Amino acid sequence: MTTLTHAGDTLTRNALAVLQPGFDGTTAVPDWLRRRIGEGLASVSLFGRNVQTAEQVAALTAQLRAERDDLLIAIDEESGDVTRLEVRTGSSYPGNHALGAVDDTALTREVAADLGRRLAACGINLNWAPSADVNANPDNPVIGVRSFGADPDLVARHTAAYVEGMQSSGVATSAKHFPGHGDTAIDSHHSVPVIDVDRDVLNSRDLAPFRAAIAAGTRAVMSAHVLAPALDPDNPGTLSRRILTGLLREEFGYEGLIVTDGMDMQAIAGTYGFERGCVLAIAAGADAICTGGGPSDEGTVLRLRDAFVAAVRSGELPEERLAEAADRVRALAGWASVSGATDLSGGAPDTGIGLVAARRALTVTRGDTYAAPVSEAPYVATFSPVPNIAVGDETPWGVTAELERRFPGTTSGTFSGDGSGDRALAAAGERRIVAVVRDAHRHGWMADALTTLVSARPDTVVVEMGVPQSAPTGAIHIATRGASRVCGQAAAEAVTGA
């Protein structure tokens, strides 16, 4: 059933304008999406499934812009572990945690500007980044290396630098996840996390980076599906009028776009229902609905459009609120169409700044049983946790490929769960072991595996590609603070002493 009367109807055009849907395909824009753009849809989202090469993405976005030249085209390109543009190869840039460890805001600004130019050359003008979350909980299962760090002042200054750098390339940023997702032990992809601290802590810690992002001129802020009882005891951020309108708009004076985190995430869809959650978000003060990471078909767009129209007609959603939200989306689309790149070939020169930053972020610690760097084909044992949904399982990580390039004949294996250390020892034989881990402090089985390896083979080299929370171990311990491709390249250089 549809409530659409005709393509020019203001209400239905506004209902479409607040959506940021995804779609399937890499070479052709679906006919249904073309029709909806003509009927008022003002934003489209790209995900890893839409990406093969930069040139292919540029050709795809050119098709979209042929339908509407001021279309917002969004992507979740944090760089580091969360990459969509380089989902099949790993990112050419380190992520936030590496940049925070270097703590050079000029470098962060340069990396963000370089990434922004690459996105702009692909026709992308809205990036759902940076993460402005303060990594206050080391056991956080979804933020971790996506955060600049655990110090609010450091996170604030690097968030501001990132915003300034990327927006200098004509790509709008979206500081996330407001009012903060750093002090959580639950992933909001699965359920509603709770940040149970008082308002003073939130002000001085979680909210500080968002104030910095606003001061730096961020064009968008992304909401979090997180419950902060000190701000609103009843509703998570995305559905909270107190948080989105009272705090962000009225108290912080923010006038830009508020976009939601993915509304198909279980914290919303599994608790409130997909369509109803989207209506509640717009009513609370959100302007744009992020969807398409999961559902990406025409039916999803029509259901959401009709839910907004029905909510307006029933009086649940003020028509003025929907119109205001739609106008903010169009305003950002207008800014982006003026500020964006003119060369949409997909080609952007590789300046190498990502590798420079990854090298600067490394920390190399010699153990008590220090052994020389690896000088012949080793055995690479990668201890792989289950990836969170934000990172996904498509993107390669580790140091195996780089070590194989340096030492043909390098062998490798991937391990998980109890007994991983013993299995890796058996597989390695007499070869020197390079053990690669990711957030060893969060996984008891992984920490046990390292203990087993280092005890049996003291010359083991350990590469930690997550948050280096655990004490260094191994003959040589290398902390990369991220698992992007350039982090792996920098780590391989350290492994071999290059």
How would you concisely characterize the structure shown here?
The chain is of the alpha/beta class. It has 18 helices and 14 strands.
Mean pLDDT: 94
Number of strands: 14
Indicate the structural class. alpha/beta
Range of helix content: 40-55%
Q: Tell me the span between the first and last alpha carbons.
A: 64 Å
Uncertain residue ranges: 1-8
| Shape category | globular
In what order do the strands lie side by side in the largest sheet?
2-3-4-5-6-7
- The Cα radius of gyration reads 23 Å
Could you give the topology of this structure?
Elements: H1 10-17, E1 19-20, H2 31-38, E2 43-46, H3 54-67, E3 72-75, H4 96-102, H5 105-121, E4 126-127, H6 152-167, E5 172-178, H7 199-206, H8 208-215, E6 220-223, H9 241-251, E7 257-259, H10 266-269, H11 274-284, E8 289-290, H12 298-314, H13 319-339, H14 353-361, E9 363-366, E10 379-383, H15 400-406, E11 411-415, H16 420-428, E12 433-437, H17 444-456, E13 461-464, E14 476-479, H18 485-496
Parallel strand pairs: 1-8, 2-3, 3-4, 4-5, 5-6, 6-7, 10-11, 10-12, 12-13, 13-14
Antiparallel strand pairs: 9-14
Helix pairs in contact: 1-12, 1-13, 4-14, 5-6, 6-8, 11-12, 14-18, 16-17
Describe the structure.
It is a single chain. Helix content is 40%, strand content 11%. The longest helix is centred in the middle third of the chain and has 21 residues, at 319-339. The relative contact order is 0.13. The radius of gyration is 23 Å and the shape is globular. A 6-stranded parallel beta sheet has the order 2-3-4-5-6-7. It has a 6-stranded mixed beta sheet with strand order 9-14-13-12-10-11, sandwiched between helices. A two-stranded parallel sheet has the order 1-8. Helix 14 (353-361) packs across helix 18. It is α/β, with parallel strands linked by helices and 498 residues long. It is built from 18 helices and 14 strands. It has helices at 10-17, 31-38, 54-67, 96-102, 105-121, 152-167, 199-206, 208-215, 241-251, 266-269, 274-284, 298-314, 319-339, 353-361, 400-406, 420-428, 444-456, 485-496, and strands spanning 19-20, 43-46, 72-75, 126-127, 172-178, 220-223, 257-259, 289-290, 363-366, 379-383, 411-415, 433-437, 461-464, 476-479.
